[in-house]
Design a protein that fits this description.
alpha/beta; 9-stranded mixed sheet; 9 helices; 13 strands; 24% strand; binds adenosine-5'-diphosphate; binds magnesium ion; ribokinase activity; PfkB_dom
Length: 297
Amino acid sequence: MAIWNLGSINIDHVYRLDHLPRPGETLAASRYVQGLGGKGANQSVAAACAGADTHHLGAMGQADDWVIDRLSRRGVVTTDILRMADQATGHAIILLDGQAENAIVIHPGANRALTPAMLADPLSEIAAGDTLLIQNETSCQVEAARAARQAGARVIYSAAPFDIAAVRAILPHVSILAMNAGEAEALFAAIPGDLPVEGLLITRGGEGAEYRDLTTGTVHRQAAFPVDPVDTTGAGDTFAGYFAASLDRGEAIPQALRLASAAAALKVTRHGAGEAIPTRAEVLDFLAARPADQPSE
Ligand SMILES: Nc1ncnc2c1ncn2[C@@H]1O[C@H](COP(=O)(O)OP(=O)(O)O)[C@@H](O)[C@H]1O
Ligand SMILES: [Mg+2]
């Protein structure tokens, strides 16, 4: 089966400065790094690295071809990514000072300029048994989820960045709702009753993850693998992409949790977002060295 991902593509521009600029001040950066981010791009890379036939649905401006190259090199099918003449590729300007304080400007650009008409063709290709991933960084979330469910696909929605209005709107069309601990807390505070989904995937950083099967009431828990974290950017996206790819292969929830947890553990030992997501071979090696470690229950 295929994984489709209606997801954001963001270029991160990271500038290191002596101090954050004050109004009216002009500063030269001492260092500049450009990276590929966006929850969407990260989840596509993770799902493709995990071995799934992964199609990214999204949009960019007309420049920045390197982004397409990088996604394709990680195995993502990029032919459905639209190039918009009147929009910039989504990006983040990240300013860092010497004390690790930051100031960030995000421009969603093409990510939020997608219209349902632009997605009609790829959405019509989604078939029964496929999976659609969505996060809260693009337009057309509800339209895409509805179309995928009507086609008989599984819809996994990452409620991040968290916005309760966006969750409420898409919830009737979601199969699995994925959240980190903070997002889950915000969700349960806003919607205390039953949720109309099959399952909840809740990740808790270094404390592991759980999947609550709401159809049976079973809770599957997976401990985090003990590692020395250096950068947790994209941990949740790595987890979500690997988890989806595992279900897509027909694996059961405990296996999916264990694989995703190992992938995310490896990711946090590396700096960066998309470029730090491990391959399936690396994840399997990591797991092979830990045969009976961290059983799920
Ligand atoms: N310090 C850590 N050690 C090991 N695994 C981690 C660590 N931090 C995160 N992970 C893994 O990444 C997953 C997602 O992290 P989490 O912080 O919950 O998501 P998000 O990136 O969305 O905030 C966790 O469930 C865990 O498997
Ligand atoms: Mg976190």
